[in-house]
Specification:
Blueprint lengths: L1 H18 L7 E9 L10 E5 L5 E4 L5 E7 L2 E8 L6 E8 L5 E7 L28 E4 L1 H6 L7 H5 L5 E2 L9 E2 L7 E5 L2 E3 L3 E2 L10 E2 L9 E4 L13 E5 L10 E7 L3 E11 L4 E9 L2 H6 L11 E14 L2 E16 L15 E21 L2 E20 L8 E22 L4 E21 L5 E23 L4 E12 L4 E13 L4 E12 L3 H4 L2 E3 L5 E3 L7 E12 L5 E18 L22 E21 L2 E15 L5 E3 L6 E13 L5 E12 L3 E2 L4 H7 L13 E2 L3 E13 L6 E9 L7 E7 L4 E6 L4 E9 L1
Parallel strand pairs: 1-7, 11-16
Antiparallel strand pairs: 1-4, 2-3, 2-5, 5-6, 8-15, 9-10, 11-12, 13-14, 15-16, 17-18, 17-45, 18-19, 19-20, 20-21, 21-22, 22-23, 23-24, 24-25, 25-26, 26-27, 27-28, 28-29, 29-32, 30-31, 32-33, 33-34, 34-35, 35-36, 35-37, 37-38, 38-41, 39-40, 41-42, 42-45, 43-44
């Protein structure tokens, strides 16, 4: 502990000394204004910093660039206007003395190009993706770090949005409208990626700790259904993230220390100022060992270790276009020893020793080139890696010696290309066509001992397959009020020649200055988690059979209607009704309650063979969002969802899914107080309350478990028949931001107290062979998290 204190003290002192000679306590806002569809620069656009005193404004040059100097620290709205384009307002731009604000602002041309058109609302209403009609939401780095209980994790931020549930403190799996977390697609900079979390495994999309550093992401999109045609191989939702570009004019640095995120260092700056090229690197090292030592609970007595590195190299503008190299690497490791855990541990079995490691790697090269003023190509070449190693030992007893029980080593390597042609035909019509191809190298090697200590090699695969996707989509604006998004997506899996053709359509109509009606429909399909295809069934003669290899895609149809109103300035009310019909779901050949729609409900991989695409499912519900965007020093976000999530297995009986909570609501709010003589510093406080219906589960058969000394669940007629108590959590976050008067340096110290009421939310009911009883494991209780950040 003393070592880390010394490191932190040296960093802070060196920063103060090296920056003390700086003279300007103000900051710069600069960036580029472009046509959102053609990506062409817009010269002559006006940018006004709303609320600045004295008034601050700027105008873009011939390259669409602007620079506004000497802006005092604070929160501002930016109003952007240009004749023939819709006026937009960027809300809640946070200016500190420690870091420049660099923006890329996209404007949409008005159909009536003779007049300047004013529209109500802000950029907060829109996604970055221009083809979105319904069920889309943008989010920013500032929001991820602002909301109480967020743990600097994009997934936990998304859990605050309507239609999303995540009543699990131990993992960041998100349930979108009752769907399994395995139905979520993750994308970074146009590159489809595997599970971007520490302690991840093949076939899952969540984990205890995110490997995505929120200090490097830019404004990104999150979709909950009927998403645009360019996204495929997903049935639940999409995270479309982007890494921000490093500062191309000056060098800036960030150091951060957090109880969960660990010790972090980030640096960015120009490579060639004339070309506008830049770099950005960020590294994090886990600090959970120290967190445990000072009494902060993390859900287990085992000490997790993890580290990650993110980077982005921007090549600037050249005659061959713009090149960008980006990447992320992450390592994690944890050992669960039975001598150090008990029955309340969230992750471990007190009768076993287990050892787990996982690795993530991705790298992409992005190329953007203009064909003409209205058209461009965007291409991403990338490689991603996701691997894990899990070993489990049965502990020694008087009757049995210590022996290895499970060996599970898996990895997948994806080589991919995503290229698209984009063209703004005119002010009414924009089209985009593209292809995505992934070559997948999958290595699965896993075995488990049976009751007579014979190894069962249930995975033994090392080979390649290919997933091809293609799409075409168009946006047509009949008027400035009526917009149609139309598209089609197709995909082909070479492993078993599975194919799908998926139409998508969305309609958005602005009823008046402040009201919008939206309709959406989407057909979506998704391949099964890769491990499912290669689960081997051992036959009586000892040989194995791949009975799941020919499984087709799971199909899903989304129907959505939405209504959006801006009743007064800075307030928004949005409601959506949805219905989702799932088909072609893998279930067992013989009658049972099993369905792949419940995949991801536990930590265990699929262990079912002889599956067929004959199951169905339905998700339907209503969502409400009431939001006050951050203005006048405060914000409010209230979201609520009531929903049902049902499925039918091969038994033909309708069951609750493992993700059916029936309802969830969130209430968030926060206030900033400007303090100090010059009102340069900020004290902030935020509150979040979440309540969600308890999830359904299949109860343990205690007698059968006691007889076999391993957990046995009750029969199919009891599948997901019992329900955990409702989940409740109250989080409170306070923070202080100090903006230096003498130098361009800012410091932030925040305390995020999660579950302040220490509510005992149930994690699981499970059989414990040591006590020979059913024990209840509870989720994380009172949880104090802290973050210290310094920027200069």
């Amino acid at each position: 502990m003393k070592k880390y204190r010394k490191i932190l003290l040296v960093l802070v002192l060196s920063i103060m000394i090296t920056k003390s000679f700086s003279q300007s306590p103000t900051q710069t806002i600069r960036g580029t204004v472009i046509d959102k569809q053609s990506q062409s620069s817009i010269p002559g656009a006006n940018i006004i910093v709303v609320g600045a005193n004295p008034t601050k404004l700027g105008t873009t040059d011939i390259d669409g660039k602007f620079k506004i100097l000497e802006v005092n620290p604070g929160r501002y709205d930016l109003k952007v206007t240009y004749l023939g384009y819709k006026e937009i307002v960027l809300p809640n731009v946070v200016v500190t003395s420690g870091k420049e604000i660099v923006l890329e602002i996209g404007m949409e041309e008005s159909i009536n190009s003779l007049t300047e058109v004013e529209v109500s609302g802000t950029k907060k209403n829109e996604t970055n993706n221009d083809m979105t009609s319904v069920s889309g939401r943008s989010f920013s780095m500032e929001e991820v770090n602002r909301y109480a209980g967020g743990r600097s994790d994009p997934s936990r931020l998304a859990a605050n949005f309507a239609g999303v549930s995540s009543p699990d403190d131990s993992r960041n799996d998100i349930v979108i409208r009752g769907n399994s977390p395995t139905g979520v697609l993750w994308r970074i900079e146009g590159l489809n990626i595997p599970n971007p979390n520490h302690f991840s495994t093949v076939g899952t999309t969540g984990g205890p700790v995110s490997a995505i550093n929120t200090n490097v992401i830019k404004n990104s999109d999150f979709f909950t259904s009927a998403f645009p045609s360019e996204y495929g191989n997903a049935n639940a939702g999409v995270f479309d993230l982007g890494f921000r570009t490093g500062n191309s004019e000056k060098r800036e640095h960030t150091f951060q220390l957090g109880a969960l995120t660990g010790l972090e260092a980030m640096t960015e700056g120009p490579i060639n100022k004339e070309k506008g090229s830049s770099y950005l690197f960020a590294y994090r090292y886990s600090f959970t060992g120290v967190a445990q030592a000072i009494g902060i609970p993390i859900g287990t007595a085992a000490t997790p270790f993890y580290q990650d590195l993110s980077f982005k190299l921007n090549g600037g503008t050249t005659k061959f276009g713009k090149f960008t190299l980006f990447g992320l690497g992450a390592k994690s490791k944890i050992d669960f020893l039975h001598t150090k855990i008990d029955s309340t541990d969230l992750f471990a079995n007190p009768s076993k020793d287990s050892y787990f490691t996982s690795d993530i790697g991705l790298m992409g090269l992005k190329h953007f080139i203009k064909v003409n003023e209205r058209s461009y190509f965007n291409t991403v070449l990338g490689v991603t890696y996701n691997g894990s190693n899990y070993l489990e030992d049965n502990i020694a007893t008087n009757l049995k010696p210590l022996e290895r029980y499970i060996e599970n080593k898996t990895s997948q390597l994806h080589y991919s290309i995503n290229t698209s042609f984009n063209s703004k035909i005119n002010s009414k019509l924009f089209v985009k066509v593209g292809v995505i191809s992934e070559v997948i190298n999958l290595i699965l090697n896993a075995r488990i001992r049976d009751s007579i200590s014979v190894w069962n090699q249930y995975w033994d695969f090392n080979d390649y397959t290919i997933l091809h996707q293609a799409y075409a989509q168009a946006k047509y604006r009949f008027t400035d009020r009526l917009t149609l998004n139309l598209g089609v997506h197709g995909q082909f899996l070479a492993l078993n020649n599975s194919t799908s053709i998926e139409p998508r359509v969305g309609l958005k109509y602005q009823l008046g200055e402040k009201q919008t009606l939206s309709l959406g429909y989407g057909m979506h399909s998704q391949m099964q988690p890769t491990d499912v295809y290669f689960y081997r069934e051992r036959k009586l003669d000892g040989s194995y059979d791949l009975t799941n290899k020919n499984l087709g895609f799971t199909n899903s149809q989304h129907f959505v209607v939405g209504y959006d109103v801006l009743p007064i300035k800075d307030w928004r009310i949005k409601t959506e009704l949805y219905y989702q019909l799932l088909s072609n779901v893998p279930v067992t050949q013989s009658p049972s309650s099993f369905s792949m729609l419940n995949a991801g409900a536990s930590f265990f991989p699929n262990d079912k063979s002889n599956l067929k695409n004959a199951g169905t499912g339905t998700n339907y519900g209503a969502e409400l969002t009431v939001e006050k965007f951050f203005s006048k020093g405060y914000y409010v976000l209230m979201t609520g969802t009531i929903y049902e999530s049902k499925y039918k297995g091969s038994d033909g009986v309708e069951h609750n899914t493992a993700f059916n909570g029936n309802y969830v609501y969130n209430i968030l709010g926060g206030k900033d107080f400007k303090i100090g003589k010059e009102k340069r510093n900020v004290f902030s406080v935020g509150v979040k309350m979440t309540q969600a219906g308890g999830r359904y589960y299949t109860p343990v058969d205690l007698e059968a478990s006691q007889a076999s000394k391993v957990q046995v669940l009750q029969g199919d007629d009891k599948a997901f028949s019992q329900r955990n108590p409702d989940f409740f959590r109250l989080d409170v976050k306070t923070g202080f931001t100090f903006n230096s008067k003498k130098s361009k340096l800012s410091q932030t110290l925040s305390f995020d107290i999660q579950n302040v009421t220490n509510n005992k939310n149930v994690f699981a009911q499970r059989y414990n062979p040591l006590t020979n009883k059913i024990n209840t494991a509870y989720q994380i209780g009172f949880f104090p998290n802290f973050v210290y950040k310094i920027q200069f």
